[in-house]
Structure formats: structure tokens, C-alpha cells
Amino acid sequence: MNLLVCVTKTPETTSKISFTGNSFNTEGISYIMNPYDEWYALVRALELKEQHSGTVTVINVGPAENDVVIRKALAIGADDAVRVDTTPTSAKEVAHHVFNYAKDKAYDIVFCGKETIDYNGAEVGGMLAALMDVPYLSFASKLDHDGTVATVERDIEGGVEVATVNGPFVLSASKGLAEQRIPNMRGIMMAKRKPLEVVAAQDVSADVATTGYSLPAAKAGVKMIDAENMTELVRLLHEEAKVI
Amino acid sequence: MSVLVLAENPKGNFKKPAFEAVHYGHLTAKALGTECIALVLGSADNPAQLGEYGASKVIHLTEGFDAYDSRRYLAAVTQVAQQIGANVVVLNHSSTGKSLLGGLAVKLNAGAVSGVNSIPNTDSGFSVNKNVFAGKAIAEVSINTDVKVLTLMGNSIPPEQVGSAVEVESLQIELPEAKTTVTGQNTVAGVVPLPEAELVVSAGRGMKGPENWGIIEDLANVLGATTACSRPVADTGWRPHHEHVGQTGVAIRPNLYIAAGISGAIQHLAGVNSSKTIVVINKDPEAPFFKAADYGVCADLFDVVPALTEAIKSFKASN
Ligand SMILES: Cc1cc2nc3c(=O)[nH]c(=O)nc-3n(C[C@H](O)[C@H](O)[C@H](O)COP(=O)(O)OP(=O)(O)OC[C@H]3O[C@@H](n4cnc5c(N)ncnc54)[C@H](O)[C@@H]3O)c2cc1C
Ligand SMILES: Nc1ncnc2c1ncn2[C@@H]1O[C@H](COP(=O)(O)O)[C@@H](O)[C@H]1O
Fold first, then answer.
1. How is domain B2-169 classified at the CATH fold level?
2. What φ, ψ does residue B124 adopt, rounded to 5°?
3. ipTM of this predicted structure
């Protein structure tokens, strides 16, 4: 099975989020592989490869500093990697660059994460599927493949929907698809020798631009309620907060 | 020129997300000086009612949408948008809406923004606000293409009744063959799904074990609320995955979020801090969640939660 996994990096989840004008303050921020890409998409791809043989390639669209994240994906077990050398500012660019690389390579499944935990786009997977004209199985929390037919459970509101698909498709991974794998020493050593191909980016323009950031309004401060007096809490929720 | 809104009708019924999207489409159309047209795919009860929320017309395609197939849905929305010359397409920030967003952006050569929480600013160009970092921040994003596609974050813009029932039409479109087959659905019945819920009762590791969840369910039941949980609770299988809220779970913005036995880690707060009112029940006065709360109760949740349930019961009985 020929599998492609899209991986990207995001600020570490405990990062303090702050902005100056319309740019995100990157000082002191450390980056991780987007959890949906690392914990679920990549690991499930590796499991399918272990089951059916084949290759797992990871792809990132980004600058050279992203190699750290790519090497981690190789250390976890991917066979080889590609980086499209550009700094994208929109999902559209990412999708087109991945498509340009993947279009003549006959991947059985292209994996994405369900969203990046910074921008929360949830856009790249759907774009890729449309560009490739294949089904998009979004928010997959379970994937089985018998070599011909895939059975996918997709997260929908309040539960899951089960679908089967024949032929190639794009999948976005959500929690549950696999169990996180921690790279071991051997994996880390081997990753250094695995191929990381850097390809030049074709011309793709962005069609959205972030023009500013703000933080949600701060809370006025907590009002502590006596545990013996839940009637008072109910009164406040009704009269002051007006939520019940 | 028009604004096209996909009005979702799970199991044939329109619910709040459909009304929110249509009303949002109506407000957007007003800002652009054009009309809002609602699109309904598959069998639906009374599509004409979408006029009440501001649609000037409903296009209803009845055949071929019983089961979700990404390519068929995408083809339908694309062709309708093209035929009516839509320059904005509004979807819900739901499993269906998010699945369609990227594909529509490609097919319509449109700029896409997901999780929008404001009416577009059309003073110069077209820009919207969206949640980023699971609600820890808000980004203003401008779209430079002629056609725009948006998914609307739930509970952002309250739907209002501004009109009355409208005409329902059909359109001729061509659907590709389905390549996926839906073989089943497993959803909890009779509960408002988390992203739509106005009232949420959530609990964490302070519950000690899954066998204790009865008190959380009782509280949720008297309120008519949906239940949620912190990540370790879902990871250990105490609660189903779809209840996990936070940076790596569902991001929600209900009117009321009650958190019992949750410490308030930064990754948890990320997904819930857009809630209008937050009540925190925790026995540790130092729990970080109190800093993000509107109301706090510092005591044992096994006493507080049942007492709160009783207090709400009496309140409901006397109102
Ligand atoms: C990359 C990453 C992503 C993450 N994403 C998420 C996410 O999306 N969502 C999420 O929730 N977490 C997430 N986490 C985990 C997060 O960091 C916390 O570990 C988690 O939220 C803690 O869950 P908790 O509050 O239920 O448990 P704990 O931190 O163990 O807190 C339990 C709380 O219950 C209180 N308590 C105990 N007994 C009682 C009692 N009898 N009465 C009242 N109070 C009591 C305690 O005082 C304590 O504050 C993520 C972590 C990482 C590293
Ligand atoms: N720069 C990138 N390079 C490779 N893949 C990416 C990149 N950005 C996003 N992706 C993939 O697309 C998924 C969804 O991203 P988004 O649509 O931006 O939320 C991520 O989980 C990744 O799998």
C-alpha cells in the first residue's frame, strides 16, 4: 500500500498565545508536530503498512526549519519524506503543493490531520480530495482496510457514521484512529539516514490573508458561591447571567 | 449575485444550526445588497420555513442525498452555487460543513474561512473573524476572491425570525456516481450534539470513575444540557470520545458550561473559554479553572452536583 501522510507543525499546546499587530509572537514558542498528524494519521498509516506492506511517505510544505518535525515523523517510522520548500500562508497553497507532488504517484490513501491546532482550518484535506477528485473521508476515528475495501468511521455530531470506500481517497484523522507512538533511539538514529527530498514550490497564490488578531474579552473575575447555597447559584444563573 | 446557504437537515429535520446559517446568510446578503437563497439536500420537513430566518427562496434537491457521499454533496452545492451565481456560500461548522468547505473552495475558486464567528465586514473588501487556537484567540481574515466560502461557528450569531415561509423550487443538476457507501450510523439519540448545545455539563478526573457519572447525567437532564468531559476521561474510556472538549477535542461555545472535577489545564480551557458563562466546581481552591470562571464553588463535587440538581429542579418547578 502506497501511503502519503501530510504533516505540519504547530505551537506546543501550552504556549502562551499573544500577538503584536497582525503577527503571532513566536518568541519563546516551541513547536511540535500537529497532534492529529503525529498521533493518529501517521501511526495508522504505519499500521496499515505493517499489515499490507508498502511505503509511508510524509510530506510537509514549509521552510527548512520544519525538518525537525519531518525527522520526528521518520523516527516514528515513515520510510521517506518530502518537503516542498516554501512558507505557505493558506490552506489553498498547502493543498496545491501537496497535489502537485502527489498527482502522478498513485497513492492509495492520502492522510491529513482533522485540523491544525493553531489555525483550526480543517481545510487542506477537503481541498486535496477535490483536486484529486477522490472521496474525502473526514474526521475518521477508525479505519480498517482489507487491501481492496476500506471501512471508515467518521465523527459526526453526537456519534459516528460508518462508510466503505473502494479505490483511493483522502482521509482526515481525528482522535481514536490510532494510539500515539513514541520514537525510540533506534528510530531516531535511522531517521537521520532516511531520504528527505526537498522539492521547489510551484507558483500558487494565497486567496485569504490574516489582517489582525485579538484575544477574547477577559472575564470579570470569579464570584465564589457557598457550597451550601446552590439556590443562590441558580438565582445568579437565571437573573444575572441569564443562561437558564 | 447572491448568498447561498446550505441548510442542514439531519434525519429530515431542520434544527438550530440550519436557522443560524440561514439567518447569517440573510445578514450577509443584506450587507452586500443581495438576496439569501437556502439549499436543502435530501428529504426535509417543511423547507419553506427557512424563509422565516431570512431566505428569500429555497432550492430543494430531493433525490440522491439519503447517505453522505462527499463527491455527490460537493457536486450538488457547486452546481447550485454556479447556477445561481452565488458569491458567498455559507455552511455550518459541522461535520458536513467542514467536509465540504475545502472542496467548494477548489471547485468554485473561492477563498475559504472556517469557524467564522462574525458577520462579514464589507466596508472595504470582505473580512470575517474566526476562532484560532481553539478559541484562545480570534483572527480577522480577509478574502480576496470573487466567491467566498465560510463555515459558521455554532452559537455565534443568534438566529432571528425576520420573514415568513417562502417558495421552494428545484434545479436540474448532474450528480457523479457515489464512491462511498454509508453502512451505518451510531449516534446518541435525543441529545443536542456538543457543538450546537447551549447548555453543557462537563466532568473530569475528579469524578474518580465512570460509575459515578449518574450525578452528572442527572444535572444535565434537569437542565436539558449535553454532557462533555476532559481528555483523560475520554482517553481512559470512562466516557465516549465525542464528549472530549478542548484543544484536541471539540471546541464549543455554549451559553453555560458547568465543569465539575476538571482542573482547567490550558489545553482544556482552549476549547471551552468562549463559553458565555462558566461555572467551576472543584475542591481545590488553587485549581486554575477558577481564574477562567464566572461562578465558582469550592467544595466536594459529590455534594455540590446533586445539590445543584435539586436547586434547579425546584427553580424549574416554581417557574
Ligand atoms: C498536547 C496535549 C493536548 C491536550 N488536549 C486536551 C484537550 O483537548 N482537552 C482536555 O481536557 N485536556 C487536554 N489535555 C490534557 C490536559 O493537559 C490535562 O491533563 C487534562 O485536561 C486534565 O483533566 P482533568 O482536569 O479531568 O484532570 P486533573 O487535572 O486530574 O484534574 C482533576 C480535578 O478534579 C478536582 N477534584 C478531584 N476530586 C474532586 C472532588 N471530589 N470534588 C471536586 N473536585 C475534585 C481536582 O482538584 C482537580 O482539579 C492535553 C494535553 C496535551 C499534552
Ligand atoms: N504546511 C503543511 N504541510 C503539510 N501538510 C499540512 C500543512 N498544513 C496543513 N497540513 C495538513 O492538513 C491538515 C489540516 O490542516 P488545516 O486545514 O490547515 O487545519 C493538517 O493536519 C496536516 O495534515
1. Rossmann fold (3.40.50)
2. -140, 110
3. 0.95
- Give the domain ranges of chain A: 2-213
Q: In the prediction, which pLDDT does B190 show?
A: 81
Atom of ligand 2 at shortest range from CA of A113: 21
CA distance A119 to A18: 14
Contact A196, A71 (CB under 8 A): yes
**For residue A216, what pLDDT is reported?**
86
A140: nearest Cα among A191, A184, A175: A175
> Is the minimum CB–CB distance between B222 and chain A shorter than 8 Å?
no
Most A CBs within 10 Å, among B79, B104, B109, B132, to test the A interface: B132
- The percent of chain A in helix, strand and coil, each rounded to the nearest 5, is 30, 30, 40
What amino acid is encoded at A101 in this protein?
Y
Which atom of ligand 1 is closest in space to residue B248's alpha carbon? 8
In tens, the pLDDT along B77-117 reads: 999 999 999 999 999 999 999 999 999 999 999 999 999 99
A205: helix, strand or coil: coil
pLDDT tens by residue, A214-228: 998 888 899 999 999
- Please answer whether residues B273 and B264 qualify as being in contact, where contact means their C-beta atoms are separated by less than 8 angstroms: no
Which residue type occupies B101? L
Q: What is the pLDDT of residues B147-174, one digit of tens each?
A: 999 999 999 999 999 999 999 999 999 9
Q: Where are the domains of chain B?
A: 2-169, 194-317
Whole-angstrom Cα distance, residue B22 to residue B12? 17
Of B102, B39, B26, B113, residue with least CA distance to B76 = B39
What angle separates helix A124-132 from helix A91-102, to the nearest 10 degrees?
40
Helix (H, G, I), strand (E, B) or coil at B11: helix
Question: How many helices and strands (H and E) does chain B possess?
Answer: 7, 15
Nearest to B94 among A127, A136, A157 (CB): A157
Q: Say what the pLDDT of residue B136 is.
A: 87
CB contacts of A137 in chain B (<8 Å) are 70, 180
Tens of pLDDT along B252-285?
999 999 999 999 999 999 999 999 999 999 999 9
Q: What rounded mean pLDDT belongs to chain B?
A: 96
pLDDT-derived band of residue B137, with 50, 70 and 90 as boundaries? very high
Q: Measured between alpha carbons, how far is B73 from B54 in angstroms, rounded to an integer?
A: 23
Query: What would the mean pLDDT of A157-179 be, rounded to a whole number?
Result: 95
Provide the CATH number for the domain formed by B194-317 in this structure.
3.40.50.1220
- 3-state DSSP assignment of residue A94: helix
- How confident is the model at residue A22, as a pLDDT? 81
Q: Are B47 and B13 in contact (CB under 8 A)?
A: no
Domains B2-169 and B194-317 share a fold: yes
Inter-chain CB proximity A156 and B251 less than 8 Å: no
CATH level 3 topology of A2-213: Rossmann fold (3.40.50)
Half-sphere exposure of B232 (CA within 13 A, CB side): 12
Residue B168 in grid coordinates:
421552494
Alpha carbon distance B115, B128 (integer Å): 10
